[in-house]
Model the fold of this input.
Amino acid sequence: MAALLISEAHMNAKRMKEILFLTALHTQKAFDVVNHSILLDKLFQKDIPPEIWETNNEMYNDLTSRVNWKGQHSNSFPVQQGVRPGGILSTHLYKIYIEDLLIQLEDSNIGLYLGTNYAGCSTCADDILLLSNSDEEMQVMLNVVDTYSKEHQYNIHPEKSVLIKQNENSTNSRKTSICSWSLGDRSVSETDKASHLGIIRSSKNENIINVKDRISLARRTTYLLMSTGALPTRTASVAVFSLLGALPIEAELHNRQLSLLHSILAPENQNLRDIFLPSIDELLAILPTKIKWKQTVRYAINTFWSNKFGSLSREKSTLIRLCTDTINIGEIRPVWKTATEIPGDTKKAITKARILTGTYRLQATKAKFNIGSTDPICPLCKLEEENFQHFLTRCPFLEGVRRTFYAPLKQAVIDKIGIDQWKTNFQNRETLTQLIVDCRKLVGSTLPNDSNFLNTVESISRNLCDKLHQQRLTQIIALSL
Ligand SMILES: [Zn+2]
Done:
């Protein structure tokens, strides 16, 4: 999964004609430097059952070791770091040890997003890879990583940690302003090739390099097998299969088809039977043509899911401002559709979509969903709770940005519904917030159903949301320095 995300990010950068900055971090002796008291503290905060915590505490607290040399034993000495090599729990414990770093990066909204999904730090145990489309953001990520490693008493090897730029060309490289990156006071070197999770990531021809690598591995394996005495090619297949105890491909296909049949009939797949389709008996009696069947299935699935999405999103408090009347399967929502092919606009649409779906994290949302004690107050103005209404319409720290886009937005609406209607409806902050988040929810009650007009509002509010997001991030970084 971690490797797939990186390949997706690469494809995405190619399509958007943007540079993808990747930094592969090399943690020095990763598993050996896990500090026991920090680890036990983190485990404690995980709300795991007390007896499991107690077992871990027994395993790692007051641990001592001694050296066995030719039957003689040295004096014992305390061991205060390192998870047990080869232990089943060790990788899990290590993941808990560094999990907060990944959460911190995601919570600060720094790093790459694929659609609304965060993909800024693709990680498998100690193999961490930072991803971003922005050179400056990559430096901020490295700063976060450096601070975390110091707090957690481990070292990141600056010489072995490397940065790669993918999809760089003369046009997009002009937009970058940083040419060297650092981890604390040491610089991170730039290279054109690095390995992450056994896959080579490179600035150019990544696929060709990896395919060559795999072919060479396959060739080495084949030669190794051949040297043990391979059979001549004329040997009958049946003899080969019976010697190997293997089955032909056809049997493998049968195997899969029959397990699929079981999955379809299993009670946990009741959902599948809720989709309105003819029963198996009816199908056996009259089997439709493949084309006809595909059409029937597509229609039944689309109807089932658009109804289900509608009812699910009405239940979710985070989707309160999302207009759920216009969910049509196969039809892209205006938030994506109106974002043109211009790379910058797609990026803005991502921010907008995260606001629309409630996945954009403000202090109030963090406080609501976090187990810990997050302060819901706006970190910038400290005046009131930082919710979407505050962020989009009230926070005085973002007023400058807001004013720039507020005027054209107001004008577009007034041109359509008149000044009186504007005054009656949009003095209300909640209605104004709704206008910015998803204007389509106001169709019928306040706004006319005119798609050109609604798309204009969508595109102004997209720019507004993006600028507010950037401004908020800049101010938060400035305040934290
Ligand atoms: Zn504020």
Summary: The pocket of zinc ion is lined by residues 378, 380-381, 383, 386, 390, 395, 397 (CB under 6 Å). The mean pLDDT is 83.
